[in-house]
Amino acid sequence: MKIKLFSYNVVDTPIHRLSGVTKLGSFLFLSFAVMFSYDIRVVLAIMLFSLGVFKVSKIKFSQVKAMLIYVLIFLVTNALITFLFEPEYGVKIYGTRHEIIHLVGRYRLTWEQLFYQNTKIFKYVAVIPFGIVFLLTTNPSEFGASLNSIGVNYKVAYAVTLTLRYFPDVQRDYHNISQAQQARGLEMSKKSSLFKRFKNALIIIIPLIFSAIDRVESISNAMDLRGFGKGKKRSWYNKGKMTLQDYTALTISILILITTILISVFVNKSRFFNPFI
């Protein structure tokens, strides 16, 4: 069977050994640092750090290939829409104009607009590895415990945990149903047209939905029989303990965030780095 997508990646790495609270906190601190700053120097530094973390986590490309394709489509679409609606936004931000070429009408390609949009793209590229690492290296139960530790109601935290645990089950059911349908003559290979494969995929989705409903009902009945939700609090079996590695990771994340804010406030005097002055 193919490698499961969007599921917990069981590997012994320094990233996996961190507690769920640490990974959640670090992800939030680093994501805020990337989103706060439009200094391309800071963004590139954090991007290299995020790619290093991604490499250490030993996540296989096959696990995130589909996600990266969607991200690439999103980045291209976002860049085109930004230019179509605000072709002069970079000029407004940096206060200068260095025109490259006049395309048509009000659309003029400038170095300021290119610099702004490239900075935005690098910001996304910097934060996406953190999200992937957090999602694929955190045990779903430990993630629920982490959410509950920062004040999220345990019912909501448990619902998120069940959702993450459900991804591998849905993938397995889809694979099994697909194999059964292909054995009956349903064409799903690359030999058929894209439209035909899409239509046949819809045929598979129908039994998949019924299978999902049955599983949800079974889980709901089991939780009701065990009195889930009766108490105001609950304990977590997989709640990780904080170690020196956890405190070190959190400290590094906080220092990166603080450094980003200080550079924006005292060096650039703004969230934007302006190379055109």
What layout of secondary structure does this protein have?
Layout lengths: L19 H17 L3 H17 L4 H25 L3 H6 L4 E6 L2 E4 H27 L2 H10 L4 H30 L10 H32 L18 H24 L10
Antiparallel strand pairs: 1-2
Describe this structure in words.
With 277 residues, the chain is mainly alpha-helical. It folds into two domains: 177 residues, no CATH class; 87 residues, no CATH class. The chain has nine helices and two strands. Strands 1-2 form a two-stranded antiparallel ribbon. A hairpin with a 2-residue loop joins strand 1 and strand 2. Helix 2 packs parallel to helix 5. It is found in: Membrane. InterPro entries: ABC/ECF_trnsptr_transmembrane (IPR003339). It is a multi-pass membrane protein.
Descriptors for this entry?
single chain; 277 residues; 68% helix; 4% strand
Summarize the structure.
By secondary structure, the protein is mainly alpha-helical. It has 9 helices and 2 strands, in the order H-H-H-H-E-E-H-H-H-H-H.
